[in-house]
Amino acid sequence: MSTIRLIAPSGFCVNQAAAARGIERLKASGHRVENQSVVPRRFQRFAGTDEQRLADIQDLSALPEECDIVLAVRGGYGATRLLERIDYSRLGLAFRQRTPIICGHSDFTAIQLALLSQTGTVTFSGPMLAGNFGADELNSFTWQHFWQAITEPKFTLNWQSPTPACSASGTLWGGNLAMLVSLIGSPWLSVIDGGILVVEDINEHPFRVERLLLQLHHAGILARQKALILGSFNGATLSDYDGDYNFDEMCRMLQQRLSIPVLRGLPFGHEPETVTLPLGAYGELQHDGQTASLTISGHPVMR
């Protein structure tokens, strides 16, 4: 049994029923769920005032020994407001003594990248309370991959990617594409040299994804990577205006521009079925032109 502490540093949890369902599922699986008061908390569109949401993060420096997992309730906008007020020194000191499993995605990427930049803390880009654990039907793939990532010190992900063969190794990092790009030029994004960058997003038309990726390219960030892995990019609707321009065409254009491998197809992101990735861990990528294999190590695991 693990103890899970909920945090809500971003948007108000509109789907309260899903959050309640997620809590009951976790409890039914034998886990203790603490800090449930953050779920109904609300100020304007946010999950509480800036001070309340900031306290969710600051309090992580004084977690009790029995707390194993820190889980974000949901995404939505709000985390960016907190970045300049977080006491990274205090958090870094606490995490060097004991690093909890900190998991979330979407807007939470901003805090994850800031923690990685300022303290070197590895956090997990993966399921959240409402959208994943509280889904109408719990996805077994997502559930299994979450527990694999946080309990196994070394694990391997395999997926199909009909792109040119390649191999690479380096620091695994990334998360939500829009959030990553929003931090370019700020103190909360330390660009990883020789890394494996994995990105995902939702409700972004292929041309918007292209624009975000080209911003990373123009900023010189992509050229510094060993490989780029594209997760899921769902929720966009194409129209007649797009002609034959779609996500596939965007990827082809991108690969022509870049000198690094671009892989696709990893089930990662705003999907019911998603893997969990430790951001800041070590990744070893092998790809034979059809099947990609990513072996991950160097991340915190449950004791």
From TrEMBL:
GO molecular function: muramoyltetrapeptide carboxypeptidase activity; serine-type peptidase activity
Family annotation (Pfam families): Peptidase_S66, Peptidase_S66C
EC number from the UniProt entry: 3.4.17.13
Record domain LD-carboxypeptidase C-terminal: where: 169-284
GO terms for biological process, alphabetical: proteolysis
Domain of life of the source: Bacteria
Signal peptide bounds: none
Catalytic site: S106, E200, H270
Matches recorded under Gene3D superfamilies: Class I glutamine amidotransferase-like, LD-carboxypeptidase A C-terminal domain-like
Domain LD-carboxypeptidase N-terminal: 4-126
Keywords in alphabetical order: Carboxypeptidase, Hydrolase, Protease, Serine protease
Family, per entry: Belongs to the peptidase S66 family.
Name listed for the protein in its UniProt record: Muramoyltetrapeptide carboxypeptidase
